[in-house]
Amino acid sequence: MNGEGITDVSEFPTPPHGFEDGDGRKVEIREYDDDREALVSMYEKFDADDRAQGIPPVREDALENWLDVILDGVNAVAWDDDEAVGHATLVEDKDIGAHELAIFVVQSHQGAGIGSHLLRGTLALAYERGVRDVWLTVERWNRAAVRLYHGVGFEKTGRDGFEVEMATRLVDND
Amino acid sequence: MKTVLGIGGTEDSVKALEHTLDRVAETGDSLTVAVVENPDSGVDADKVESRVRELIDEHEADADVVRLSGSPGSALVEYAERNDYDEIVLGGGETSAMGKIQMGRVAEFVLLNSHISVKLVR
After folding, report:
1. Euclidean distance between CA atoms A152 and A164, whole angstroms
2. Are strands A83-93 and A74-80 parallel, antiparallel or unpaired?
3. How many domains are there within chain A?
């Protein structure tokens, strides 16, 4: 992909990885392992403000269909005790041979660094699974997300409209 | 209601046409289908036009077909405003492998430039 950045995953902890978040909660990032019910309940109460370009879908049948698609990819979940509070997913777009990334953190746990840990852990996991090229789109007004992705090496590519496209290539310089 | 639908051959624009043909069959609104040259669609405008005519026949609908040249968004807005249309209808974007909605450049341009209402079909 033109203009993509470089992300060195060697410093990123591979899940499972526990940490204390900015609000003092013990959070653990783990690879998705058949925890579908926990994800469904996370998305059922997901704040509408935090939906991005139509995902997660609101209607239950659409949510289940969406999970069918994305849970085939590389997935990691952030856990606060037995509650799923964040989810990152990479879905392969076979036409372009790259994986599309999305991350969601529930509103009650935002602003505490969980997204950043989840992003790094998921990219380390993805590298282990053979993923190299990663891209995403983010709504132009979501500056916090653009900063988060830029912070791990993503660069803006191609067109810049209502949504911004960013991409990176995963490497391990260890 | 006088409606103009812009179509450049992308999948979402074809879906918008089918939806709109069904709607005008119910409402009796007047429909003009404007075939534009959308470089993002990768489909030749002649092919788009013949597909449009087929779909109009299949739906047994009554619609005019016009060809607009030049930049698709601006050509469509200018045509719609000069000819006193009430509404512009467009495809509402494609979805990525992940399921994210991505707006086409033509739709973005039309939304920001049109003085008449714009309908995006999902």
Report:
1. 16
2. antiparallel
3. 1
Buried b (16+ CB within 10 A) or exposed e, B12-38: bbbebbebbbebbeeeeeebbbbbbbb
Per the CB < 8 A criterion, the answer to whether A24 and A119 are in contact is: no
For residue A40, what is the enclosing H or E element? helix A36-44
Judge whether A91 lies within some domain.
yes
| Cβ <8 Å between B96 and A69 | no
Tens of pLDDT along A20-75? 999 999 999 999 999 999 999 999 989 988 898 999 999 999 999 999 999 999 99
Considering only the beta carbons, identify the residue of A53, A89, A161 that sits closest to B101: A53
pLDDT in tens, B30-47: 999 999 998 888 889 999
Residue type present at position A124: A
| A73, A91 contact by CB (below 8 A) | yes
Domains parsed from chain B with CATH numbers: 2-121 (3.40.50.620)
The secondary structure of B49-104 as a DSSP string is HHHHHHHHHHTT--EEEEE--SSHHHHHHHHHHHTT-SEEEEE--EE-TT--EE--
Q: What range defines the domain where residue A90 resides? A: 7-131
In a domain, A67, yes or no: yes
In a domain, A136, yes or no: no
From chain B, pick out residues whose CB is under 8 angstroms from the CB of A133.
Answer: none
Number of Cβ within a 10 Å radius of residue A134: 28
What is the distance between the alpha carbons of residues B122 and B89, in angstroms, rounded to a whole number? 11
**Residue of A120, A103, A108, A115 whose CA lies nearest to A52:** A103
CA B28 to CA B1: how far, in whole Å?
A: 9
ipTM at complex level? 0.83
A93 CB near a chain B CB, below 8 Å?
yes
Across the interface, whether the CB atoms of A55 and B103 are under 8 A apart is answered no
A52 belongs to a structural domain: yes
